[in-house]
User: Fold these one by one.
Assistant:
Number 1:
Amino acid sequence: MKNDLLACRHIGISKQDEEQMLQKIGVKSLDELIEKTIPANIRLKEPLALPAAMTEHEFGKHIAELAAKNKLYTTYIGMGWYNTITPAVIQRNVFENPVWYTSYTPYQTEVSQGRLEALLNFQTAVSDLTGMPLANCSLLDEATAAAEAVTMMYALRPRNMQKAGANVVFVDENIFPQTLAVMTTRAIPQGIELRVGKYAEMEFTPDIFACVLQYPNGNGCIEDYRAFVEKAHAAECKVAVAADILSLALLTPPGEWGADIVFGSTQRLGTPMFYGGPSAAYFATRDEYKRNMPGRIIGWSKDKYGKLCYRMALQTREQHIKREKATSNICTAQALLATMAGFYAVYHGPEGIRTIAERIHSIAAFLENSINKLGYKQVNKQYFDTLRFALPDNISAQQIRTIALSKEVNLRYFKNGDVGMSIDETTDIAAVNVLLSIFAIAAGKDWEKIHDVPEANTIDKELKRQSAYLTHEVFNKYHTETEMMRYIKRLDRKDISLTHSMISLGSCTMKLNAAAEMLPLSRPEFMNMHPLVPEEQAEGYRELIANLGEELKIITGFAGVSLQPNSGAAGEYAGLRVIRAYQESIGQGHRNKILIPASAHGTNPASAIQAGFTTVTCACDEHGNVDMDDLRAKAEANKDELAALMITYPSTHGIFETEIVEICRIIHACGAQVYMDGANMNAQVGLTNPGFIGADVCHLNLHKTFASPHGGGGPGVGPICVAEHLVPFLPGHELFGNTANEVSAAPFGSAGILPITYGYIRMMGTEGLTRATKVAILNANYLAACFNDTYGIVYRGANGFVGHEMILECRKVHEETGISENDIAKRLMDFGYHAPTLSFPVHGTLMIEPTESESLAELDNFVHVMLTIWEEIQEVKNGEADKADNVLVNAPHPEYELVADKWEHSYSREKAAYPIESVRENKFWVNVARVDNTLGDRKLLPTCYGSFE
């Protein structure tokens, strides 16, 4: 392998390291280890036929050429995506900062206080602007938030409605088409009917349980919904409102006129359009619905000494605990983008946000007046930023379009011939003059160049916002760049990310997100592209998407791919909808059962339920494999109703099951499909693949296997790859002329982060990707060998080896000493490490996945840390350490405790803070002591204004 390729920088293990590690494992070569780990009948016979690997320099030139093919026109299409200005201090210190983008979802509270605070800021901004008491910390996009709102309102139906089978949601016709399409995809399998019509004319009937409105509506018109909401509530119907978050700086928020749920996108709060995503959706509701709310909620708590801190609240609603009974299948959301939107609100504050909104509205008002004078008629009676013009008889939309394109402008063209525009934060005087010129030229009239736009507010008094927002001090003190930079830094110092140490979370694949992969994201050609521009303007994006799709098909062994799903859970859902659509097409639509092994990730049963299936659980045997007798029995008993098997490979237990081909054969013999969860694809790439094994569909986690960062809980991408017979049923979009199975607002989902995966594949090439997989398996087996004689490994494959991850046995430790896996996880923080995966998939254990990116030095340091902790456990076991007062049960030890005058523990400060020499050299100072996990659930405080007093 050439030494100037990314693989040399990405893979942490050298050939010399390899020999030492193989000796420890007890095999002679890396190939021997792979042969003993992966069953022979599924190993690929030929290398992947991918393009030759590029150097980082070559890829830099290649991606620049692709970017240059994107034509950045001034775009006023709107419809949920708007140009915005990302403050440089946020782009530089958050979006481009690996401390923020390489961190994990903040389950380990004590080493996540920075991003928890940033996300609480986001929730507070959303609550304030919407007038609702409770918001979550982001969803995937506005359209999926709408679908989640429908599901939630369905669950909240009063008993009499449930009894009567009320299953209709009224949707006002003036809603964005992509929102309606995703709601339709998600409603059908739930047995929910969407009834679309005019809100002003609709009559409430007993079968209607909820309504969905848009504010301002899809045409840009502000409607006064107050009387309608009163009527809905009188009929026991809930009301969800899709609201433009920036408009709420000027408009009466839906929370003040009775909405039960308010949702939408925060994209225009400083997040680039990225050709459709990623950006953070928001979701706000009433406090009494908190246990039905989808997504994660950040709340206040206290640590063991009473210090105020933050944690993720009400986690028992989530799929990883509730499985098929979860409120949603949401796993990854959009944490990084929510963090940016929260910082945008902090940086601008209430006055800044209001000024931006007023300027947008003033420009819209000026343009309405000026263009009307040219003979056009603006038809939105009330508006915030969006104008819709009816054209005079002698002017066609095509004439306007031709003139606009000649001036590199995209407008919105309505089906009836009207022309619209949505003004945004970037619209300036020069842009206003260009807009005026387009309409003047089309009308054959002169226009006067303007030099300023007067302040104006045309919104009716009863629609204007009177209430204050963003009153907390955090939104009123960081308005200079120096202060903002320091505030961001103060938060990021509280969090462990890959910039500090290995994050060994099993099933999460926290590998390197290489700088060469990340750099293209900051190119304006990728950042500032609207997803609905004409295809010829997005040539660079389209070429990248086509190339990436071909590469993923080769890697997975499949015939088709959709990049639309914008998280792993969304990919699961999309895959199941594709299976359903295929089976309906061959007269097998009655199949409604999904077989799922007991070891599966919680999203599997949650996604199956959301897709309208019922789940059948298949047992695992004592070795962690699928119990073949139970699988055969369950498949046979349900063969006429069986739609699919959902299986993760290698299994969530970290092993390559030898019977996987036979498992696929059994399922296919029943007339069902095999869905392979791609969570562990990092152990397959280049060595085997789902298509070769015999699966019909798989989803991939680009934020795991393919080097896209986790971002503290998103963004993720969950593309699905499918066999030939499923290709016609892949997710559609209005842009493609077919909205069947649409699962995301944007045609290509989170297109903005696809350059990362594209770069990873192009720079690694076949040889690099294959070696990465081998080294991931090598590293896991090395750690398994190092821990074998102490903790022990719960499951091993047929030949005694693990896959790319392993489950560390901690249950005996707890039985013998009272020290739990949670105590070990917290003690790791004192050593500067994030905990492995806790109590999943086996309760009372730790699951470790080292990935290929870590060096032998880092692996050895981690081993040293874990063995030091083992010795500390033995001290408790042997009575040398107090069972109730030891370094493990008291961990982590925060800085403020270690430097306090008073120290009352039975062990020294040094043992607590500097247990080994490497910690002394690179200490991560924990900010809080162990956090109370129940206080913040008993009293949920989801905004900055919260207080336990």
Note: The longest strand covers residues 208-215.
Number 2:
Amino acid sequence: MIFGKRSDRELKYAKAKAKATEFFVDPSSVPHFKLNSDELHYTSILTLSTYVNSRLSGDDGAEYMTDLQKVGSFYDSASNDERYREYSDGYWTLAMATYFLLGNYGSAKVCAEKVKEPDFYGARARTLYDLIMFLLVPSQPVPPDLAILADYLAGEDVDRAEVISAADSLLTEDSPEDTFFSGVLYVSISDAVSCSARALLPGYTHLDINDWRSFLSIEAAPKLLWQAQRQIGLAGVFAGENAFIQLPTGSGKTRSVELLLRSRILAKHCRMAVVVAPLRALCSEIARNLSAALKGIARVKQASDVMEIDSWFEEGASDHEIIVSTPEKLGFIIHHDPLLLQESDLFVFDEAHLLDSESRGPGYELLLTEIFRFKPDVQMVLISAVVSNADEIAKWAFGDSERIVKGGNIQVTEKSIGLIQNKGSRVSYVNREDISSEDYFVMVDVEPQELDRFPRERKRRYFPDYSGNDPEQARDLSIYYANRLLPNGACAIYVPKKSSLPSLLRRLDELSRRSANITNLLLSIPADEKKRLTSLVCKHYGKDNWITPGINAGILPHYGDLQGAIRQAVEYEIERGDAKCVACTSTLAEGVNLPIKYLIITGARKGYETPRTRDFQNLIGRTARSGKYSEGSVLLADNTEGFRNKEMYSTLMKESETERCGSAIVNLLSDATTQDNREAFIPGESIVNVILEHLTNPRLEYELASAFSRTLGCDDLRARELASRRMRPLEAIESYLSGVLAANMGEVDVLELCASTYAYTSSDEETQERLIKLFQAIYESLESVSKENAALFHMMQLGTRTASSLIDWIESPEGKRFIEGGCSEIHLAVHQFMLPNPDIAGQLNEEQLSLIIGLWIDGANLSQITNTLNEQFDFKHEFKIGKTEKIVSGVVRFTFAHFVSSMLDVVREIDGLSTADNIEKLSAFQRKVKYGVSSLSEAMICEEVIDDRMIAKEIVSITGMAGSLSDPAILKFGALANREAIEKYADSLPAYCSKSILEWISS
């Protein structure tokens, strides 16, 4: 160890001074200590020299890695310190070199791109710069002194020894600087060879170098394998081994999936692969990246959200095919066409911690169980950055707890944690594992600005305003700091609840109208792009909406229910740097990568609910994306002074407090209680007994709710909510066992079926007994069901009571009337839809939900739908547009659309109803419900071009093809015939939308 206690204190002081520059405050405001952080430059050079000399003498230098991390942190800080501006090129060069030696390639790339004078330290420093740029930045020229290395990396017939010999010739003692940097250069070249794709991929994949030559020679091929990719390679994943990959966010997992797919295709062991991600937006990002990376060797297709077999799937697979899907759509495909399961050679499940999601976890777990059961030899890769029990999941999934890839020593972008205190005037930077331990602080000159008054106003108003409650103060501080820090990099303001976003953006609008100093925000989005974004927002939400003022003031929204392509447009603006600030909910943690330098947290609780540490870790892990920034900050604008909040954030910040990932199915068997009365509870065994007693009763959910109401003393709404949460895993089990029975595989061992679930393997003996009892009872209840109906239950992915009721209804006069009438009497379907769960649409009744669906299909925007509801119905409180948005996004587009899909499954099996006309009309109705469009032509635009109902309507209007087209080629022909008008319309849209349309019309 070269760094001692004094050096560590000097490093903290250096960071504090760098932060002062970052916050645009006078460096003299940093408290003066009896330390000279400038001395750390000498300590850092000594560390680098000692490490390099150790490597030159044949050692691995492992004992210096901790000190090297501190060196990198120091030079990164010093490079940002205003006092060292004239030396910044030298410091960026040293930071670049240090990060590269550490294997932190993302930060090395960022630092290299900031160097303006590469020869600041002489010729060898320049060669080192050229080397790192060539290795890490695409399309860089081959450095003149390193041509033989370039040939080696490209797969040419060059021996490793020749490269090292050439590196040896670059060692020099012409000057102190050249002597130092030639040693760094030699070690860097040696590392580049050792960590190169050329050197490692043949061994990791058990393929000959000749199999890789064509790939290695292309511009897009990675010259180096990052640490995460090397860990995955060492675990045998590229050669076909199963694994649970538990690596930090931003460590290179995405590129690892590309390499995995390419490796298995080259090995001729992967004709079809399936990549599963939880969100359609994430699926779109993955599909785009894979399409670009695997162009020429595989066809990449993204499954649509509609619960039907996509037309391209029925065309049959190409030589090599990659399917990208959500888990729900994959379950639908497998249940309707087992061919996918039979032909797939590889499954990759991203965000595998979805296993314990209350709403999606049961189906997710049983989908995995089904794959394991019917294709035990398929390669399976599970990925998650945020679970503490990867070994437990690996033991269940692969039968081997050692089949995990962990990233204990993987280098990721440094993230500092700052607590905004003293009314915003002090930012205390703390230790992530102990937020009560302060490393350093920065005093910020926050002077509340008196705002302009509106006519006839007398009260003085200020920004930031400290007169409100904690959430209001956190909101103002988040806006203030976002505006202050924006010149340094993109910023995300996190709010724990979507309902807090309108007040944040309305406050922003008020500040703009009152002439608050938020200039950086106001100018952060080009005026013409603001106009395009707000225009699209108004089409979906009406002119009087809360989103548009926020966009005009410089902050874009990002949350799950955001309509149409607005969310993708926001992500694209941030990605390409045309917008700098986003206000978001937990969607930031759900996998989509945005280049955010700062994350400002306004709160963590959703009402009384505290988030899981795992989810919070996933959220803050999105800060400072590798390759975009070399350092990022998480700033807590929320009040951390009170004991309750301090304890909460102390837990949330600690990686060591990350919860285990359990099984959501086990929630069915656990004790139940309420927040109002913790002493009243129902034991899990009693809940199971109620379920078993009424298992075949169509009113099971009502009986369960009644038991909760009696025992817990809660109101009917809360009781029905508790019952509904228990029904999800129960219905998932019923659907799974229906598939087993329908498969007609002879005698079935129910105990074995139960034991194959993660719920069973992760539970104690008492819970296991309850689970077996439940599985046996469900299977026995299904034995009286015909195999045809069991197959239907499995395809529909519904519980037996709901599925049986739907089958009966479709065969009833009302059901036939709905289907044969062309699905026009929506209220008939909605009645049956709400029968099992009257609360599924919240406070809305059948008539109101029917009205929403009808207006949605007719093309009304959310404002029009909300206004019509308030005009036609006398609500106790005015129905808000936010509720309409939630109903449309969740109930209509997802749950009701799935219900219509289940209707299709039944109709196809009933003689007399399974006519081509009925199936065509019901299928069209499903797509109209899913996309909110009035014609199949518009639905086709949503599927083929861009999922935005308003844009689809306009494109179809321009083409004049408003009918029910079934052939995308005809629609494309119509667009080409009106190309000039289409291109003009595309130019009026946000950049992402315009790009999608122009790519479609030009392809």
Note: The mean pLDDT is 91.
Number 3:
Amino acid sequence: MLSLKDIKKDYVVGDSTVSALKGVSIDFRENEFVSILGPSGCGKTTLLNIIGGLDRYTSGDLNINGKSTKDFKDCDWDSYRNHSIGFVFQSYNLIPHQTVLSNVELALTLSGVSKSERRERAVKALEQVGLGDQLHKKPNQMSGGQMQRVAIARALVNEPDILLADEPTGALDTETSVQIMELLKSISKDKLIIMVTHNPELAMKYSSRIIKLLDGKVIDDSDPLDKNVVEPIKKPEKEPTKADKKAAKKERKKLKTSMNFLTALSLSRNNLMTKKARTLLTSFAGSIGIIGIALILSISNGVQLYIDQVQSDTLSSYPLQITKTTASIGEIMNTMAKNHEDSANHDKDKVYSQNAMGEMINTLMEETKVNNLEKFKKYLDDNSDLKDLTSDVQYTYATTLNVFTESDRGVMQVNPSTLLEDMGYMSSTQMEAMSMSGSMGGMMGMGTDVWSEMIDNEELIDKQYDVIAGRLPEKYNEVVLVVDKNNEINDYVLYSLGLLDPSSLNGIVRRAMAGEDISVDSEQHVYTYDELLDLKFKVVPTPDFYKKKDGVWEDMTGDESYMKKAVANGTEISVVGILRPDEDASSASISGAIGYRHDLMTYLIDEVDNSEIVKEQIANPDIDVFTGLKFKTDENAADTDSSSETVSDSTADTESKADKTADSSDTDKKAGLVAGDSSMEIPEGMTEEQYKALMEQSGASDTGELADMGMNAMGSMDMSAIQGGDVSSLTETQKKYIASLSDEQMELMKQMLKEQSDTNADQLANSGKYSTSNYDNNMKTLGYSVVEDPDSINIYPVDFASKEKIIDIIDDYNDSVGEEDKIEYTDYVGLMMSSITSIINAISYVLIAFVAISLVVSSIMIGIITYISVLERTKEIGILRSIGASKRDISRVFNAETVIVGFVAGALGIIISYLLTIPINMIIAHLTDVPIRASIPVSAAVILIAISVCLTLIAGLFPSRVAAKKDPVIALRTE
């Protein structure tokens, strides 16, 4: 079973060599109780350590079950100690911070035994030595005899073949020594026990074989085997097959010892718990760097969150804007500046003119571009990445939102607002130019309209506004009123909405400039939420402003009675909610006082597109529906001679009425017939009987009287009212006359009016005169739009990083299309702001770099503490090696300790940092009005803890390697 052949062991001490064993050769039986006696220094313990695999022999051979150990590697010796050897030491060598049960289980954990089986076998071993009721005690709570029994149980639990006892009774009293020897003797019936002792009486009483050593040599063996020389190992007759090699490799792998990381953590945790104060102080020292970095990150995160909010709010007000007709402001300014620098190439002996206006116009024409938004919109709609990068993509159209309010003062236009024009502050031309400036005017705080489209992002609106009354709009005909943070509404808005009488401001600017005494209502008006939620408005499509007369469409906005009816028939809009900006919101997405949904504009576009005047203009693209004249084109321009004129709407209307021809004779006959004039010639196609019957249906007794009444009534009658069926605008005489007509006469009148209108239209169209307008202008005037072809596109990025990605998307689009389809856009935020985020990040990185120095220093300190722990746990290292732990297992134990310390340091740093953010936020709130809230992101907290663990782990690598390289024999001797 076990055979030693000529074992020699030499120690080099300085320049000399000491021989501890000098050619020892011994064979042992499978089960016997062998005692090795001899004076101190004779080599007893050295022999025991070589048999146990703790020490290496210098020469000779140790054979185990007929197998030589000359070629054993470290892992083979570890497996041998774990599976074949059990140690019982004089000083017990129990790990003090582990329970009795854990001490016994430890050898099994290295063998890879499952937890349940490990527990069962350890309890059984402890019961075998009479300690079944002491499982959860610590070694320092037990007597010497009990501790030695625990050591024996630990040696037996892995069912080894050999039990090595080094002075097992040396530290025990006589009675306890006898108990231990009796226990060992009973064990020797099944196992080989080799005991080293100085007590010959115990050896003689309990041993079956006594070997005496002196000066490293065997001088006596009471019961040697017949053969003290190991037979040479016979070589196999044939080489092992692949299957044999595979099976042998599998068996070696099965026997290989390994301590899992959880066991290492448990050992280290228990050790650290015995030194709580030092562990806590070490962890706190290691947490200082973490605290510094965490606080910097918390403040940086608070600033970043504030910046993100500002970005989101700002970008919701100032989007990337792409208009149908655009010009690069930066390019215009650069070009003009360059031209100005290049122009100064003359002497300074005279004063020279500078062609600034010409350069400006030329540059504007060169830099102005028409964008194909229909194609670009399709590209955006098909881009799946855009949704995550934007708060909203808003499409605006040329369709005018005409909003009116009705009150006791009459009908008032609310949008587009004419308040400034009425005040004399701006001319209509300036107002129009301002309206055309779109978002730029709003961005500079110069918008005149109080109605604006809401961003289609309810989540962002919820962040920016508080609903203080009512709710957010859900339908196209619902809007919200926006107040400021003090629940106030600008009086400009009140006048514009008709809540205050705007007529009191008419011409006030002109009168003030003329030196007149003027007064403005400065009283603070108060409105309840219910009063504001009761506000109603009317939206009227632009085509409803026009009425067809004599074959052309006339603008009726100057007709008060007509506009009252148009407004009354308009779509009612209700205020359903009142919003107030959130206190922490730095900007707002609703630029006006009234916010409406995008589907209101969609509804309005449909109404305009389906109007009669728009359909007529689309059906007759070469005729101006307002004048009846043809549009001037390149084809008909050549036909225009010097006698031809291009006329305006008013001229064409005047001249068209004067250009009646004789072809209207039949119409005159019908008019006379309708009027009841019996002297009129019977119209063509009607018999005399039919004519008489028709005249009789009028109900008038005197046809002459009826004729007089009819001709008088028709003289000033609004014929378009007859065509439209609306007689409310007629006089009482006209209404009486219309009521007297039969159905046939009414149809005859309508037919007459249509023929007259068509005749008038034909005469105008063929008059040789041309309209001053064109088809596109007319459609724009009418507010005609196509949903697929917006007038402008406003892209609202989530943040600046998203804005850059959106710009990349636009650039990718430009790269994929021809020059004529490339998109020019305006980035207002880019013109106004630089990258604040980059500055904050740079400052944070610099501060973190400084604080990281303390983190590195604390990690080095933890490495030093770990090294001290290695020195303190040297004996534990020897114990672990004696039960089969490998060098890697020892490293793992101390790496686990540094991981625990690093984790505690990181977690402690994060907890302290979280607590410190409370007073920090209080100080920030006291010193500044900026709503910055320092907070540590969860991800940053996790990363910082991970960094702490990694740094302490790295710092502990050197001490753990030192621990792994310690000689187990020397380690076991350390106290």
Note: Residues 630 and 636 are 9 Å apart (CA to CA).
